[in-house]
Amino acid sequence: MMHAEKPIEYSKADTVRAQYDTLAAMAGDLAGHFALEPLLERILRHTLELLGCENGSICTVDEAAGRYRKEVDLGVGCQSGRVFPLDEGVTGEVVRARGSVIFSEYGEVRGGHIDGPERSRLHATIGVPIRWNDSIIGAFVLFSRDQARRFTAADAALLERFAVHAGIAITNSRLHAVAEERTREAAVSAERERVVRDVHDTVGRGLADILLNVDEADRLVATGLDPRNALAQARTAARSALRETQRTVLGLGPESLDSHSLSEAIALELAWAESAAGLQTRLVVVGEPGALAAETVRQIFRIVQESLTNVVEHAAARSVRVGLVYGEGEVTVLVDDDGRGFDVAGLAVAPSRPQRGLGLKGLAARAQHLGGTVHVESTPEWGTRVRAELPVAAPTRDEMPRPRWQVLVVHPNAIIRSGLVRMLGLAEPDVQVVAEVADAAGAMEAYDLLRPSVVLADLDLPHVDGVQLTSHLRAADPIARVVLLIGSVTDDRLLGASAVGAAGFVEQDADAAAIARSVVAAARGDVLLTPAFLSRFTVALTSGPADQLTAREREVRALVELGMPDKRIANKLGISVKTVEKHVGSVLRKTGAANRTALAGRSSLRR
Question: Residue 125, SS3?
């Protein structure tokens, strides 16, 4: 004879406390979990424990298909995973009632599918719907083996609260499944696009090479010369294109990257452009090459390869230059030619050359794939510049690209350079350091390649100081903005730097915020000077007796104030360099200026 289970008695306080503990446990289970079966099992176990039962199940419902699936089943037949029609079982009763159902005995359930001895052991039964957006997406069912147990409306209300958690779990799992499916679809689509881009680049490059050799063969035939060598080269190009296309379809990178560094592989591409189209080529590398991800290297190479193919096929250029600029967090690649150019805006509206249009879109897609950008600048008859900026580390999903002031840092000390880069990044999120170099020569190269918003340079650079660098940059680009790091506002060179167009000065011991403010002010076209520097300007207003200068000395002074060196002054005035030096010394003595830069600085005060 079987004994009835003894009912578990709870005080009201114990019941409330148990409810809260169980709900808290289920909330913790729900956080970040998407595997449906183990999560529903935990919810079911919590609920059985709280209501003093040992048997229950949670099902998902598909009303449109007229069926339900038992997701978890504890103590009542182990039928998890089975699918049943909606016209049977407690779940069917819940769906027909569109609400909670309570039975004194399981035998009252229409079409209950639990049979045999197990059926006779089940007595009081309760089922509640699991809802989401007013739809029934499942059912939560409990069974009691206690013949005296009766479920009440209060039990139903409590179970409905737990059903909400089950609904969250089911919905989260479904949403997560949809998101995973869409992620898989996006990955497949992205891979398809990658293959299309790579095949386009590989085939385009190969066809260009083949056609150039065939054209050469035609030219040789027309002039009565032997075309066999050109045809042999065309066959070699065809085999190479076929091999590269096969590698592309298999997801392998360019063959030249297997045994060469990025710069070496680009140098080989430039050699191809030189031999294919007779171009003058040049490769410039600025900064220390860091460790780049294989995919970043591959995309940079493909961007250069496609750009050079465009130059060879379309540009009719005389020269092409490729630049690689390594920054702390970003690598920039530039391809600059002096060819016929094209109308970028017109191409975007109505591309007359689909091949080039696809190529430019492919360049942009390659950079965007890694969270970077591509800018194409071109003017008909004035050449084209392709500039791609790719992060060394891909940005997180939450990071959104936004325009930032681009800064070139110039300082002879590597540790100070790194400190400046870090300080600027922490103090001003709208500042992006695009390169860091050690001297004026590197600064000129980097500026020519990158055209940054601001150059932040040390005044005491080796060989060519900050004043001369400013003068050179302003001569090359009148809108160049240079902010100089200075040791003291009493330095006589500051007035000279101001005269040649320095956009700002900041002391070396300034904090990060002050440096960032000076850089941003310069980028915006403003001038931010400290009170100490302004007072220095005031002291400098006392100039020497300029009216004592001879006519020739005034001519020399005017040219010195323009930043001309002695040799150019001599050529312009038709006198010897020694005579210029003599006049400069006389002008300095009569005006009281300490040196040439101080003399040049006074011209800005007179104006």
Answer: strand
Output the domain CATH number for residue 136: 3.30.450.40
Round to whole Å and give the CA distance between 18 and 16: 5
Would the pTM of this model clear 0.70, i.e. be above it? Answer: no
| 62 and 173 co-located in one domain | yes
Contact between 115 and 94 under an 8 Å Cβ cutoff? The reply is: no
Sheet with 504-507, edge to edge strand ranges: 431-437, 405-410, 454-458, 482-486, 504-507
- Site of tokens 């060469």: 260
Q: Is residue 190 part of a domain?
A: no
- Give dist(CA 516, CA 456) in Å, integer: 10
Residues of the chain with pLDDT under 50: 1-10, 12-13, 16, 20, 23-24, 26-34, 251, 348-358, 396-402, 531, 537-547, 604-605, 607
Residue 17, number of CB atoms within 10 A of its CB: 12
Q: Which two tokens stand for residue 54?
A: 């040992």
CB 82 within 8 A of CB 59: no
HSE-CB for 212 with a 13 A CA cutoff: 20
- In angstroms, the CA 303 to CA 329 distance is 19
Helix, strand, or coil (residue 283): strand
Tokens of 514: 């002050």
Q: What number of helices (H) and strands (E) belong to the chain?
A: 20, 16
CATH assignment of the domain containing 557: 1.10.10.10
Q: How many domains are contained in the chain?
A: 3
Range of the domain at 550: 544-591
Residue 299 identity: Q
SS3 per residue for 466-504 = HHHHHHHHHHHCCCCCEEEEECCCCCCHHHHHHHCCCCE
Which tokens sit at 57?
Answer: 């199940």
Residue 229 within any structural domain of the chain: no
458 belongs to a structural domain: yes
Closest CA to 374 of 362, 363, 358, 359: 363
* Residue 498 sits in the same domain as residue 434: yes
- Supply the pLDDT for residue 45: 84
CA max distance for the chain: 132
Whole-number pLDDT of residue 177:
67
Residues 46-56 pLDDT 10s: 888 888 888 88
